[in-house]
Amino acid sequence: MILCALCFAHDGLAASLPDVLVVAQSLDDIASLDPAEGFELSSLQAFTNVYQRLVQPHPDDPSTLVPTLASSWTAGPTPHSLVFSLRADAVFASGHPLRPEDVMFSLSRAVKLNRAPVFILNELGWRSENIDGSLHKIDAHRVRIDWSSDVGPAFVLRLLTAPVASIVDEWEVAAHEANGDAGNGWLKNHSAGSGPFKIRRYIAHEALVLDANPSSPQGAPLLKTLIFKNVADAATRRLLVEVGDADIARDLGPDQIAALEGKPDLTTLRFPSATIHYLMFNAANPSNPALANPALWEAARWLIDYQGIALRLLQGEFEVHQSFLADGYPGALPDTPYRLDVDKARAILAGAGLKQGLSITLSVMNQPPFGDIAQSLQSTFAKAGIRLEILPALTSEIYSKVRERSEEAVWLFWVPDYFDANSTASAFASNREDGTKTLAWRAGWHIPALSGETAAAVADQDPVARQRRYLAIQAAVQKSSPFVIALQARSLLVVRADVHGYRQGLDADMAYYDRVRKR
Amino acid sequence: MSALSPATAEDAGDVTRRHGRLRHVLRGVGTVCFTLFGLLLITFGLSRLSPVDPALQLVGDHGSASSYAAMRRTLGLDAPWPVQFERYGVRLLHGDLGVSSSTGERVSDDLRRVFPATLELATLAMGLSTLVGLPLAVLGAWRPRGVLDALVRVVSLAGNSVPIYWLGLLALYLFYAHWRWVAGPGRLDDAFEYTIDMHTNSVLIDSWRSGVPGAFANAVSHLILPVLLLAAYAVGNITRLTRAALLAEAGKEYVTLARAKGATDIRVMLRHIAPNAAGLVVTVLALAYANLLEGAVLIETVFAWPGLGRYLTTALFAADTAAVLGATLLIGVCFVLINGLTDVVVQMLDPRSR
């Protein structure tokens, strides 16, 4: 073996190329690279670098909107319309110029395809049958969009920052249409955008290779090539970045991060993430009436070792956060009134007549860090006489049970779909009992008044008043609800010391590689 | 009654033998078809019993009810199970394995990409483990319960007992990360990987044919660790079972007779024991090869090797029924072919089995 090895001694050609960035991460989640269809973490991050929207959040301050393919916008002829002026010099990676038809085609196509992320555009009242009537070409450089929902322009602009609203090159997509699929088959592994990169090659479960797009309206990126390598095993990702065969390793566990910290040629980057972790009781489950008892919800708030989980168990991968809007979101409630206090929880349970020996099945995903969190909960709940039976399951199985409202309690995480408070508020604090299966509906929480407040908040066009409304809604959910919000995640990356300029925002799609350089 | 002439009787015998062979072949083909049909039916049934919802997997937890319903229709999940299976069967008879929901590609294209990667790894590991395992087994059977035998048993047990996942990470840490003797995970360094055209999807063949300086050596360097580890795993089984087969033969009367006639140990082993144990040894090797073809998931995960094992595992977790059925069918065909070939070889080696 030694002889063999020495004959083919590795000379480390990989990530040492100065204009190539190699990112080791799991790509197994990618189902499609069509922006109207893909809704997985890896595909969303690719869309940010391959496609552009009319407006986008500023990479360093996501609460600020930056005109991107639009040069400006004005109010339309009705309160429910906006007129966008397109950048005159904007071209796609193919060389085709940006036209109002491209905007209309992209938005209409996303709605008509009706794939996973379309619910974001549905919030505007857009459906297959009315979308074409909602998009109008005014002249060669202007396009008007109308919407029927009771929401203001500020909220509409936020929705248009979502990756599903990416603008694709109509001519390029049409050239690859097959069997009336609106180019979906081709766009699953090719690109037709104007972002700083374009897809050179995508090999499912293997690699995504992006080349620089020098003609991008936001300017050419500093790197020539970006290689995302599918490395499913975290320990292997650690070795790759340690050796230098990868420039960035994503999704390493806390123990792997700890082992790499302090190494001179590596840097650990910590970015706040909008991912919120919470415990949910299913009040709609008739087999365990205690789950609908607000006293149980309140006691549970005092039975979580927030600091222990965040700081000791998961070693900085999380921070304590107890409201549904993540820190960094406009209107986020920063209060953390709860801590581990078993005596207080016992008193609440006794006061409500909830006897000792209460047993609850807790469903958790069978992957890190959920098992560790569940064991911590099991230990602290047991001190107050509540027996948690941990039921590990596949992620999809958990979601199926939650949608069917057949679980008792579940530990889940929430990732906002677009950078606006409504994305999360409409899930946690709205149950209109109209067939919309929000998180509040799934928890069996009947809240007509709070649902009205949430609807009023999204329609409110005064930004300050709107933030006040969201603070009040968060306080209500924090005080008494079947949701015990406990943690906010951090995104941890290890990068080689010669890699600079990587930026990452709060939301899942906000990974920016255009300013990355190696020196 | 008229008597048949010898020539006519011979012809009739030929016809009977031909009919017999035809019946044998037809029975074999029928058995293979029935086995593959049963395999598909069971796999399909199990995939439908899986708690993972394929449509939910694609639409996501936040997706709307209308997108979810549309996805169920797209995947054909709105039809009853028997209808879904019938549709799959009809497509299969037309050579269409369907489209993978997790890669968006035709399953046949996916398999053409991932199977050669596994085939290459498994074949090299098989060759190496045969070269090492068979001599070790002979050495162990030479003097049973001696020092050499004890050593062989330790080696074969170690190959089977040490978790291959752990061994893989340890090997990567030592030989790739620490000493830099070999290349790390993946099939080629990034400097080559996306510039070389993969026509056959065998990294050795394609890197050799590319003519790119250093590409072939780099491919070999990437192959060394996974091949060695897979071979170490297979050596355990090959050595243990071959040694047992040799020892079983060594206790038989014809061996005692040969020894009584003054045959040397080498002659006894090579002329008497080995030929009689050959049939069993071939079966052991065939089983080891079949296992390597479908059982290299952990090594493929640790070494980021885009092979059949990882493809099947990822498809299982994504409830990607078309990919699971296609990969299972391919593995089933491999088993059938390997078993069939083994039967032929065993019959050639051992007249008793004809």
Largest sheet of chain B: none
Overall structural class of chain A, as computed from helix and strand content, comes to alpha+beta
Number of strands of chain B: 0
Taking all residues together, what is the mean pLDDT of chain A?
93
Helix % of chain B is over 70%
Please trace the helix and strand order of chain B, writing H or E for each element.
HHHHHHHHHHHHHHH
Radius of gyration of chain A: 24 Å
Explain what the structure shows.
The complex is a heterodimer of chains A (519) and B (354). With 519 residues, chain A is an alpha+beta fold. Chain A has helices spanning 2-7, 41-50, 100-113, 118-122, 153-159, 170-175, 184-187, 234-243, 254-260, 294-301, 306-313, 342-351, 370-383, 395-404, 421-428, 439-442, 448-459, 463-479; strands at 20-25, 55-57, 65-67, 70-75, 81-86, 135-139, 142-146, 197-203, 207-212, 225-230, 248-250, 266-281, 318-320, 358-365, 386-393, 409-414, 483-496, 499-500, 503-504, 511-512, 517-518. In chain A, strands 1, 8, 9, 10, 11, 12, 13, 14, 15, 16 and 17 form an eleven-stranded mixed beta sheet that branches. In chain A, helix 10 (294-301) runs antiparallel to helix 12 (342-351), helix 15 (421-428) runs antiparallel to helix 17 and helix 17 runs antiparallel to helix 18 (463-479). The radius of gyration of chain A is 24 Å and the shape is globular. With 354 residues, chain B is mainly α. Chain B is 76% helix and 0% strand. Chain B is built from 15 helices and no strands. Chain B has helices at 6-49, 54-59, 65-74, 81-93, 107-142, 147-161, 164-178, 190-193, 203-210, 215-250, 253-260, 265-294, 297-302, 308-317, 321-349. In chain B, helix 5 runs parallel beside helix 15, helix 7 packs antiparallel against helix 10 and helix 14 (308-317) runs antiparallel to helix 15. The mean pLDDT of chain B is 86. The interface between A and B is large, with 62 and 62 residues.
